[in-house]
Amino acid sequence: MRRVLALSACVALLALPAMADPLPSWNDTDSKARIIAFVDAVTDPTGDDFVPTADRIAVFDNDGTLWAEQPVYFQLLYAIDRLGDADPSTLTTPALQAAAAGDMSGVMAEGEEGILEVIHATHSGMTVDAFQADVAAWAETATNPATGMAYTDMTYQPMVELLRYLRDEGFVTYIVSGGGVHFIRALAEDAYGIPPRQVIGSLLASEYQVTEDGPQIVKLPEVAFIDDKEGKPVAIDRIIGARPILAGGNSDGDFAMLEWTTAGDGPRMGLLVHHTDGDRAFAYDRDSHIGRLERGLDEGPERGWVIVDMAQDWSRIWTGTPE
Amino acid sequence: MRRVLALSACVALLALPAMADPLPSWNDTDSKARIIAFVDAVTDPTGDDFVPTADRIAVFDNDGTLWAEQPVYFQLLYAIDRLGDADPSTLTTPALQAAAAGDMSGVMAEGEEGILEVIHATHSGMTVDAFQADVAAWAETATNPATGMAYTDMTYQPMVELLRYLRDEGFVTYIVSGGGVHFIRALAEDAYGIPPRQVIGSLLASEYQVTEDGPQIVKLPEVAFIDDKEGKPVAIDRIIGARPILAGGNSDGDFAMLEWTTAGDGPRMGLLVHHTDGDRAFAYDRDSHIGRLERGLDEGPERGWVIVDMAQDWSRIWTGTPE
Hints:
Two copies of one chain form a homodimer.
Chain A: H1 2-15, H2 30-43, E1 57-60, H3 74-84, H4 94-100, H5 104-109, H6 111-123, H7 128-141, H8 157-168, E2 172-180, H9 181-192, E3 199-211, E4 214-225, H10 231-239, E5 246-249, H11 255-262, E6 269-276, E7 283-284, H12 295-299, E8 306-309, H13 310-313
């Protein structure tokens, strides 16, 4: 009987979450050690760097940080898929025609205005509920043209583990993305365990309408807020109302968010995902049109930010299985 | 020994929160019974109306709903107090001069533009941190001209109890106010137990600046969003991303928020605080410039909303003690 009890105690100990590796898809490199040391420090109630749970706020960019952003932002690929099914008579501009033909470089050639035409044509004129239901339905069957994988399989397993680890340690985890808030919310709870109210993103204007189906929020073809670059700390202040203690990103669009986060008092962590892995994923940084990372690479190390080397630091890339 | 144990068990039972009246400052009227019946229904896991905690979202207007709004919005009284201390050479408009002289009707006579001049002069040109520290410092000593009470003593005790009761029952409680988000955040945690990230309000524009004191968010003299009327459901969708199941307000500025909330599927509650108590507080509704309540009184009862009669339903008004 005594041996059974002792065995039970051992099994119970082994089952304790704290005993398991919280980041199994991270190699045992400096990046992983620094992340764990930071979390240990802010959660140790006897230490000088202890942070109460109310202040354990972590913010993460989405495209290129939590999931991939190649060959182009997934939200744009959604729009292209939807325009491919559109009535041809509605394709009134070169950007819309290029999108409907699946010609991404043709869309990009029309510049920011062309991208906005594509977004407005596919992201407005419906209720928020209808839009989000459509995005969720699209994600169930759509596949990424570069990998053939489902989009929600192209989340980064190491980052999903990091989000879960932080929440297990009393953090609240937010997405702060240049992508559209409604698009991300349609997928973020399943993909990352992040509920709608912890998703911050760019906004189209919207309005309240009392329709035949009752009162609804309807999306309009007009940009209300771009949640990128200096807009990220502005949006965090507007919505969260506090300076996070941890910020993660992958491009210079995240620089201001990391700069503001890590300039606060007490322990802080900035983290940049550096796309170094052309074999298992995609390799790009200073010269990329998407997710360009230059200032972060130049200044991040001296600012004490963790530069995650995907090829070296991650033993596994995707949550799903590549073809 | 057995009697001691039995006594201990009784004491323990009496100490259980569930045994205590969750709303001691509410009289035993229909309003209180309906609130408790609603909360019981949505929290009973065996009932048809059960709502999981993730969806137990409650939103409340602030001015006139959670604290008073007489003789005028407290935020405007803050601005008037601050202009009273301002350099006279900066008082370049009739509205600013009236405000500095404490002449509220003079400010109101200048219309919305005059009020905006007063808000911009006192709410911009500083960092968010500095502004919120100043509001908190003001609230420590300032008194309301109508009652002589401290402003934070003029929160409604029955509503503070309702907020706490809802949180104890697994709700998340939000403020959704026409007032400025930074002003409310400076006080809401102490006054209501509501943290900054659960405060939604009107917004001045703001920008990210790297100052001598490091990166900061600086408030600008420009309105970015008015969180009133149809703006309230729009802001809830933008920030919370879900339709609440309970909404409380006191004026027609809250009508759209209650309409949208109570039109959702499943159990819903709309609640309007009707200012019927001219003896202990202030009595006003249809003809008031502040907190006008007309459509809500006309349509609320048939929509099934709880119309709280302050004189009848509340045994106590203020959290503080009137002079």
